[in-house]
Amino acid sequence: MRVGHTTLIEGDGPLEVGRGPVRTGVTVIVPGADDPWAEPAFAGCHRLNGNGELTGLEWIREAGLLTTVIGLTNTHSVGVVRDALIAAAVRKEAPGEQRWYLPVVGETYDGDLNDINGMHVRAEHVDAALAAASAGPVAEGGVGSGTGMQCHGFKGGIGTASRAVDGSTVGVLVQANHGWRDRLRVNGIRIGPLPGEEPAGRPGAGPEGSIIVIVATDAPLLPGQCERLAQRAALGVGRVGGAGEHGSGDLILAFATGNRGLRPLVDHDTQGTGPVAVRAVPADLIDNLFYAVIEAAEEAIVNALVAGQTMTGRDGYTVQGIGGERLAEYLSNHQGQTS
Amino acid sequence: MRVGHTTLIEGDGPLEVGRGPVRTGVTVIVPGADDPWAEPAFAGCHRLNGNGELTGLEWIREAGLLTTVIGLTNTHSVGVVRDALIAAAVRKEAPGEQRWYLPVVGETYDGDLNDINGMHVRAEHVDAALAAASAGPVAEGGVGSGTGMQCHGFKGGIGTASRAVDGSTVGVLVQANHGWRDRLRVNGIRIGPLPGEEPAGRPGAGPEGSIIVIVATDAPLLPGQCERLAQRAALGVGRVGGAGEHGSGDLILAFATGNRGLRPLVDHDTQGTGPVAVRAVPADLIDNLFYAVIEAAEEAIVNALVAGQTMTGRDGYTVQGIGGERLAEYLSNHQGQTS
Amino acid sequence: MRVGHTTLIEGDGPLEVGRGPVRTGVTVIVPGADDPWAEPAFAGCHRLNGNGELTGLEWIREAGLLTTVIGLTNTHSVGVVRDALIAAAVRKEAPGEQRWYLPVVGETYDGDLNDINGMHVRAEHVDAALAAASAGPVAEGGVGSGTGMQCHGFKGGIGTASRAVDGSTVGVLVQANHGWRDRLRVNGIRIGPLPGEEPAGRPGAGPEGSIIVIVATDAPLLPGQCERLAQRAALGVGRVGGAGEHGSGDLILAFATGNRGLRPLVDHDTQGTGPVAVRAVPADLIDNLFYAVIEAAEEAIVNALVAGQTMTGRDGYTVQGIGGERLAEYLSNHQGQTS
Amino acid sequence: MRVGHTTLIEGDGPLEVGRGPVRTGVTVIVPGADDPWAEPAFAGCHRLNGNGELTGLEWIREAGLLTTVIGLTNTHSVGVVRDALIAAAVRKEAPGEQRWYLPVVGETYDGDLNDINGMHVRAEHVDAALAAASAGPVAEGGVGSGTGMQCHGFKGGIGTASRAVDGSTVGVLVQANHGWRDRLRVNGIRIGPLPGEEPAGRPGAGPEGSIIVIVATDAPLLPGQCERLAQRAALGVGRVGGAGEHGSGDLILAFATGNRGLRPLVDHDTQGTGPVAVRAVPADLIDNLFYAVIEAAEEAIVNALVAGQTMTGRDGYTVQGIGGERLAEYLSNHQGQTS
Q: Is the separation of the CB atoms in B111 and B146 below 8 Å?
């Protein structure tokens, strides 16, 4: 999968709706093929808590197919990203094609740092993220759709991790904007006050935040197996301290590119091709994928924290980065003595 | 698929719990292979209304696999049928095998006609139904688990129907014990009072009844596609007048035998076999399966009615058979004039 | 509930993407209170087939609360309508409020008649629909989001119907863009060729279309009861001939305004209020609501057809209106002779 | 809630199906009222992994009502326990009553220690558990349905824990028979080899086991809120090392007794009572219930381990108890140095 970011940072000081400060962005995930409509992936989803949006899920649930690029952004810009993904796909259609698109677009709420009601995300930012999408290492922390996000009381945002499993790879990308400070655990260790840590916390009225998790694998999974992987990612969220809080939109999508040639499952255009041959991971290998998803989700959240740099946003509100070295030192001081 | 019935009819007159009258039974459905554990079928389920029991659904939902024979009976005998199906399967295990079974057993309530609390179904009746299972024409109406059932104010019970679709077959078996008299429609025609019809109706305290629908096909479906077929059967129930009433347990299972060799998806015993090759029906053919299920479910309910013979049960309570000829005459008198 | 339409009709002749012809629009449904965030309604949803979008459902599923205005439009304009509904709500916030919105916006595909990829729906059209929202009779057929819709081979669009039930009212609004010509049934009667009917049908590549159903009631329902009502609407769709076809996005939302004061269930802003008192419809009344939903859904679809006027759209493609008189005459000629 | 156990331990040595050794039992949970049909509780459920049985869930999902006593046992005895719970309820009916029962009965697999195919659980054992049910402290470990269970490589079985939350209590009871040895974590600390620990492990062919979790609270929850609590229990399972493995039946039921007088929601017998008044926990309190469930589920599993005593079963297979002191010592040696 290829990932592209557009990061929008502009202005400082008091909130002036429509002017800023702007701390937001767009991230796109191209699932495997350039044109997911022509080369769809099996997919499934899971809701840990539903105070959030991830469009396109009814089609995922019904057909088990991911047929679009995935977009991520802030809560109030899901629409513009959705329609811009459609417009971008339309521009690449062959003459005479008449497709319908139901893009998968997720969000978390960056209104503590960002002028979220200023609606600063525009279609051109989606196009830029698509143009920037690459298979190389993914920038993490406060970039792209993760720009204005907070996680467990520190700066959050984009995080990624992957595991190799029985010849396949499982990758996880999170947009981490969830969790309370006092519930944070890393490697099972509860993270107490860090040296130099300043009391942060969301301004009163805001929601606790949310996390979007995208799980990708090249294993040959059926749609139901993708759904099972998505569900396991929730256990990883729980290990770091998330609880699917009421105010949190903890939505998870998993897709698998190990089966190809799924186009005839989408619509009538490939009429007459007959049954589609696919493969399913057997029972003796699926648990390893489950474990990989749990671990990679856990690590991706920690990576989002470690990559998150201290940021000041609207009305001077500041969120500290957890600081990779600071955290590492804390952990080494608090590890079990002999393990 | 093979179907076997054990019909239990004994005694007349006033209800004496534990003595009778008995109007109940057991029906078993062997999904394709003799040993569904060794040769499972993909499967999916749907709930139109949940005032009923169909055991084994959590496994169906998780793995999409039917790994046991299906049993049907009355509401208060689900347990004995379930355990007896396990015992029968255990007896056929190879030495040293250690399987677990989660059988699919459904029920509807025959307490208006039957001494349901007398618990007259015993393990031996399950064994007899298994022994009787054959691929030939299925006896319909008040037989097997359908013995004491009522449907839309008439005698109901077992009904079946099938459709040929694009080289595949779709079969539906219902245990029809649901529906009000005044909502009954056949071929879209509301069935008014029939000549000689006597006001029937369930005794006051009883539930409205329920319907179990089993959809079987030899098309090569994935689990999610089976679930979609199961959902369409609900539309067939609705066409005859069912509404998924609050007191009704309208539960539907669909399984597909078109994919074989699914054993490695069950557990670790086939370790090392690698991905399992399966096939999926493409988009341009699935609608025909949907239409077939709707029609066959509709017809199966009507067939259960037509096959149902007038029955008198506990406390002299009598339910009339709708009478095939009487119904046919009514329909021919009420068809649209030119169609 | 109040309903408002913006109808966009412009241009004729060959499709020129971005120029037209335009045959589309926006419809908004204000669920009861002017500000659904301050006065939410319990809600539930159901998927008959998922080839469609209805945003906001994860929140509905999790909390059972409808906290926004509902928007309807074409498939490729869901995003702009969603964000515009947010912007409109934001404009009405009190100073210092910091809400998050997850609007419910649905769609069906009007690309056979409309330049759908021209993205002609803009935020101002949403504002106009909101301004036009009234509690009076709802314009039906090819208006608002129903402008470019087709249904069972005829002109479709918006349809409504309602039923009085035990002191409550159940209303249904459909955006009907689904169904094949040869499956159309009205009152159970299959509608054969009508006098003067010209063979219509969607252009080759398009999907079969979709239907969005909104069920509203002032009965005091719990969220799970709303979900049950939503599911029954699917049976109404089935009665007219819909089958939840693979290419169809048949999504249903039901909400109930009979419980008020639900604001403390949304977020922390009403902290300290304690348990929220609500009421639930008892078992002996819920079936009547089910029947009302089935009937009203059925009638709403027929009303969409009857209100639909012949329309010519892109590339000269014409869809006939079914014609209320023509249909009535057909029905009276084909009713059962004595019923 | 009241809990009662029947523990069946008999015989030693080689497995002789039908003779033993017997290491199994029955546990019953009486949800609050003596007669849950007359005084139902709102309830909801969650599936972490579906390789298991918990009967009665379709009714729970549809109506959100727990109307029976809950039973727990081994995998192959679910049926006998289910029907025996019905028989026991029938015996307490008033003359002329005609109820239907859909009991909730769960299971995990004890076939490594127990002659599971010998079907040693009988109706009288259910009656004994019902007679023994008391509100006092619950015996834990290898008792009742937990008798033959294993958990994370040690002796498992029944475990309980509770938390006080904002004036309410949340209690969790687990039947813990799941998890691998090398994934076990307590308080986030991975449990390495313990002094004197002997390599255990399930015999080759058996499944990994399962966990049933019952969550009970006296908070006034709606059915959907119960479902949310059930889902959070899965995060507690994950914290101890469970992953919802493919071979595991990880099924969760949550019920809430804070709303009373729900009988009119069950069926027509209370006709004419009108809407039922209930209460819902508001948003500002629900998270505390979530946290309590996660913690109590985690603790209940650990309690099952700590209470589990070394047991030898069929064919001399022995499972060690983890040993409370041994575990405590390990934990104190491996705690973080300063926390």
A: no
